[in-house]
Amino acid sequence: MEPRAPAEPSAPDSAEPDSADLARIHQLYNRQSHLIDGGRAAAWAATFTADATFDSPSYPAPVTGTAALTAFAERFTATAEADGAVRRHVVTNLVAETEGPDALRVLGYLQIVATPRGGEPRTERLTTLTDRVVRDEGTWRIAARRIRRDDTGATDDTPAPGGGS
């Protein structure tokens, strides 16, 4: 069996965003992790477009729109509190490819690390994310996010449909 990366860049010669946009994209992903891990659900949801879609096999159904994304992040915080754990999103190995003047395809690895009170940290999930990121009112926001868990064997790296621009 030949190993395959769950999400692969389109091609070695794919257009790359300029360095200023790359820095903004890294800030977006770093900010997202701190916001959701810090319980700031509405601020986390605001890093997505108003009609964004979030699709992950870890949850029962895709989530679409600001209100649903806010509720999703609130449930994430409530679950961590009920479990007596601190959960952290660790995003690494970002690759951004230009899809147009105001659109990017971003790939990355996402680990969810949980630390129970008084316990040792452990990785709960290792996943791959594939996002469509758009410039929305002058700010980079996520229009569509598809998460794939490494333990499911899925190889489709197309962003979830329904993401707006």
Number of strands: 6
Helix residue percentage: 25-40%
* Class by alpha and beta content: alpha+beta
* First-last Cα distance: 39 Å
Radius of gyration of CA atoms, rounded to a whole number: 16 Å
Mean pLDDT: 87
Number of helices: 3
As laid out across the biggest beta sheet, the strand order is 2-1-6-5-4-3
**Stretches with pLDDT under 50, minimum 5 residues:** 1-6, 156-165
Element order: H for helix, E for strand? HHEEHEEEE
The proportion of residues in beta strands is: 35-45%
Largest sheet: 6 strands, mixed
Shape: globular
Helix/strand layout:
Elements: H1 19-37, H2 41-45, E1 48-55, E2 63-64, H3 66-83, E3 85-100, E4 103-116, E5 122-136, E6 139-149
Parallel strand pairs: 1-6
Antiparallel strand pairs: 1-2, 3-4, 4-5, 5-6
Explain what you see.
With 165 residues, the protein is an alpha+beta fold. It has helices spanning 19-37, 41-45, 66-83, and strands at residues 48-55, 63-64, 85-100, 103-116, 122-136, 139-149. The chain has a 6-stranded mixed sheet with strand order 2-1-6-5-4-3, covered by helices on one side. A hairpin with a 7-residue loop joins β1 (48-55) and β2 (63-64). The longest helix has 19 residues, at 19-37. The chain is globular and about 45 Å long. It starts with 18 loop residues before the first helix and ends in a 16-residue tail after the last strand.
